[in-house]
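Weekly puzzle thread! Below is a chain. First person to post its structure in token form gets bragging rights.
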Amino acid sequence: MEPAKKQFDSSEVGPTGVVQVQFTIDDPGRGDAIIGRLLSERLVACGQRLGPVISRYWWRGAVEGSDEWLVVLKTRDDLAGRVVASVMAHHPYETPEVVVIPVVGGAPDYLAWVVAETAEPSG
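Winning reply:
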């Protein structure tokens, strides 16, 4: 019999130490390469690429549109700046959408896993 998993308690909503960093990109291969780089550096515990999504936006005075992929990354809040900097350094857009979203609650075991997988390797 498996041990009981700790359940989410909405009264515990607040700072978890975990954030999601998301960005859009028009090349799924480049998005995957960014995810791979961040994983190899242990800056994120997980990365997901979703899409394509249809984006519509203002750019230089005109409404534009493109097919893009949404990338969602899970990391610790103290690593968010390094993750954003790495995404920006490897992203092809002039002004990429890269945002950090605080995670205010969730499955306790999952949140602990994100923290553990992004911890500095011992040794």
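Puzzle host: Confirmed. Bonus trivia for everyone else. The helical segments are 28-40, 80-90, 108-117.
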